[in-house]
Protein 1
Amino acid sequence: MGFGVGGGHIGPMHSSAQINTASGLPFAGIPDEMRERAESILTEEPEHPSDEVDFEHVPPAEPPLSLRTLLAPYRRRVLLVLGLVVAETLAVQAGPLLTRIGIDYGVLPGRFDLLGVVSGVYLATVLCHVWAGRSRTSLGGRLGEQIMHGLRVKVFSHLQRLSLDFYTRERAGVVMTRMTSDIEALTMLLQEGLVLMIVQGLTLVTITGVIFYLDPTLAGLAIGVVAPAALLSSLWFRRVSEEGYGRVRDRIADLLSDLSENLAGIRVITATGRRRQNVVAHRNRIGHHEEANMATARVSTIYGSGTEGVGIIAQAVVLGTGGWFVIRGSLSLGELTAFALYLTAFFAPIQQLVNLYNAYQQGQASVVKLRELLKTPVDVPEADDAEELPPVAGRVTLEDVTFSYEPGTTVLSGVSLDVPAGSSLSIVGETGAGKSTIAKLAARFYDPDSGCVRIDGRDLRGVRLESLRRQLGVVPQEPFLFADTIRSNIIFARDDIDPEEVDEACRAVGLDKLLDTLPAGLDTFCHERGASLSSGERQLLALTRALLAKPRVLILDEATSNLDLRTEALIERALDVLLEGRTAIIIAHRLATAMRADRIAVVDDGRIVEAGTHDELLAADGRYRQMYETWVAHSEIRHDDGGASVKPGTGVPAK
């Protein structure tokens, strides 16, 4: 049995496979017939770097991201790779020179002994080339993976460090692009691209030196034809491709952002019949991405074919001139043969460098995007002199707080509140009045523009965030559940918890009755975002998670909204357990929930207009009384299943 899918009430449970099949979701788990094979694969997994990461809320002082800063910590291994590159290049380029010696001093004079020596040396250079190439590929590949491992951790750590305001502004798909296609493009460049560019560049330099040694006249002629055209076309290609690959990265970000949004909103899309329109919109984004790629492809084609044409012309000129030199006797046949072989090899690196320059430009475009991300400032920073927050009693104070999400648009103005330790405060008001903003400031998801927020008299801006989060619990209106087991989700805030404590918390909240019907109990798998669970089930899991975290201060952001009366009653019983002995700030949509608090504050247009107990506010005949009378008027028309009217906020029949 498992958690049922449906409305707000808690009903019969089924297995995760049944749940997901019924919901149209993919199967969440490993089939029994594949489990043994999966476990055997895991035993063969290679060793991975340690997962111990030193995370600090203060970004480390580091130079801006670039290829140089990425490679700097690995100087010795980079130099070793370069040494292997040199050995590989010299070994492979010794061939034509040995061919010239073999022809001029072995074949033509008939000295087969010398020809044998040359052949042996040639074989040795081939073996050296194979060994150096294999070692360079292996070492370079491992080095590239290690660098990218560190970069992925750095980028992900910075994403964890960034404040909620960043995720409000930025689209999820754009962030995903930084961690996927941008890093993948950089991975290709670091693992093979840079090394091959060095190989081909060194090959070009080596060949240039050798052909000038063989015949300066022919070499000058070849370089004179190639160099000006190659230089001008490369300068043009660099400028155009830089812009082109920047556009490609932006179009990929748009594409993934739209994909991410469609996957997250698939239920709304299905319910509103927007599939066809969304396919058209996504096809347009794919078209923009294709256009950006086609533009860079056209530029690459012009550059590549132009360079190849220049090379062919240079070969024709050199072979014609060199043949005339041989006939005239100023150049030997072996020298012309070696020169022709080197000249053929001379244009191959140029073509390779053209292709590799594409990869380099893509990698550089990715570096720019990642550098911009890593330079994004933390809007809620931890002060350099921040102190550890000791165990708190839980008094929360807002002192003349003013706040705005965007400059010029004030959300809260001059808000002052005092919540004594161990007491509860409900905050009520119309939608958009600023209720949830107060909760976010109390949790230090944002910092006020002016004024301050204190806990036990300490300004939140002066304490270490880790020590604050350990003593603060937040239960949102829509709790987030990860694609993992129920156990992993409820112990998310504490991974060192005893199983007995987990069972006790489940019993206290009322989750144990639900778990008893599950075949796997706490080890039942739930789908990402808790899509296979009802809203009431998700809320119970979130409350159990909060109870296990043992916070001193608890913030409930409309935690009982969107629930039917029966589920709401169950959740409120769990809240009674959770709130006992803790300071609580409750953002209430329903006045039935608000009345459970010791005191109530009314927010209107970003200001606290009233505060007091339920009875005091009714007697004051102000904004709260108006809200209460409106709520009562709407509540009295509701009926229970038998047709009897019910008391407002209770769910029991009225007299």
Note: The two ends are 40 Å apart (CA to CA).
Protein 2
Amino acid sequence: MKNKNKKFVPKKKAIKKPKFIKYFAIWLAIFMAISMTASYFIIGECRQTAKNKAVSRWNSYTQELTRLMNDYCAADEDRRDVYYERVRDFIFRYGEEMNEYCSVYVDNQKILETPRGAFAVVTVGFIRDLGDDDVEEHEEVFYLKDQSYLEPLIKSGRYDFEKDSYLSDAYSVENETAKNFASFAHFLPSNYEMRFQSIYINEDTHTYIPGIAEIILDYDEYGQASEIETIDCTPKDTSGYRLIKFSDENIGLHNFYDGCMNPAMTDFNEAESINNDPTDVSYSDTASVFSWECLTATAEAYSNKAAFKALPATTAMVLTIAGIVSLLLAIMVSSIIYSSKKAVWEIFEYRKKTTSAMAHDLKTPLAAMSAYAENLEYDIDTDKRAYYSAKVRENVAFMNKTIESILMFTKSETGTAKSVAVDIDVHALIEDEYNAVAELFKKKNIKVDIKGEGHVKSNKELIDQAVRNLIGNAAKYTRPDTTLNIVIDNKGFKMTNLTDQKIKNVGDLKKPFVKGEESRGTESGAGLGLSIVENCLASAGHSLDIGFEDETFTATVRW
């Protein structure tokens, strides 16, 4: 029977090296999911805003149309032509700006409708000089004779009449930001402005034929056209028409305005009927005898169309912003998590390598001591006993030295030394440390050349320890029968020596338990010398730079 009281001990998870891409992918997916959900509601809100603005716009235009029609029907016979012109101008503007078809009926007879097609209407302003600096101005409307006359513009590929009129104003229904974004993202089919430099007019039929057209491709910093493409739309036969130019003042041309009119044909089965009540006598007796009606798109149809047309730019803009924000947040969060995980992993790796290095450095002398001790048990020869005993003491001394180095490294790494700054004579300090181990240099016939003078105000205990380890390292690794050069100045000192060590990555020598030839268990040391120097100098506020080139090792200390 199993013991129910036995507690379950979860398996300890191994600490693995973290991967940034893993955390980034996870958090990017999370933030993208959140941002896409938020985008859905934002896009819906923007679409509703566009619809509300479109309805408001539709109401504004229909109210103005109602007022103008009532004024027209209420006008006296001799003034009715003036009001007719006002209604006609409004209908033109309605078709151009609303992009909707509108027809006007009075007593069930059509009197006006929005012109259909690109540049269906131009308004020309004329000036007549009356003398004494007095001028008379009037405007006349001319209709395009036929859309086929604009074929050269269509073939140029620079201007798409239908799409431009359909989309350009639609994007501005919501806001200018969406329109600008649509232009930048090339959602608008054309970013160019078209204008006529000349046209041919027939004043009897009030029709016109296009002449020279200009497409403005770019503007300078002052808002002036800087790049213009000219397209000649003049037909072969212009009989019955006279030429007028924008720049020709002799013919009295004041100006003319062209507009891209491509009103959508409303489905009259679902058209909105705007009309008056002929029994309403609020205007006059004359007004009551007229009935009028205007047919155009419903407010709902117009608002849905406007919202739908504005939707691509709005959606692209919101999704682009959401994507960028998600990317930045994913990078930030994953970087924080990765850094913390990496720090834990580095500590784990450091401990693992340190433990392994210590074990290797102590294993060899322990194995040797075990062998010598075993020989002592069976071999009672006096000479051999003395030899084995000396070797045991030698290995014990090495182990003791290794342990002292480890303790010294631990102390230097904590940075707990008291920071008492005193003036230190660097030359004298180096000489003292050299004299303490001079025998080591003499055994290898190494000369030591110390040049220069220098002083530093720092923690003497830390500087002593750093210099002692540098001198000790030089005694171990300098090539026999060569010279150790030490140059001192007030900014620090530099040690240079030839070595037989094969150093692959000199920067790693400052890491604990790293040796030049990657060998463990030798009696050359524990590989902590430069690590101790680095920690001592850093604790005192100084730095150590090391280099290796052409069998020459350099160590530079900077105060």
Note: Residues 419-558 form a domain with the Heat Shock Protein 90 fold (CATH 3.30.565.10).
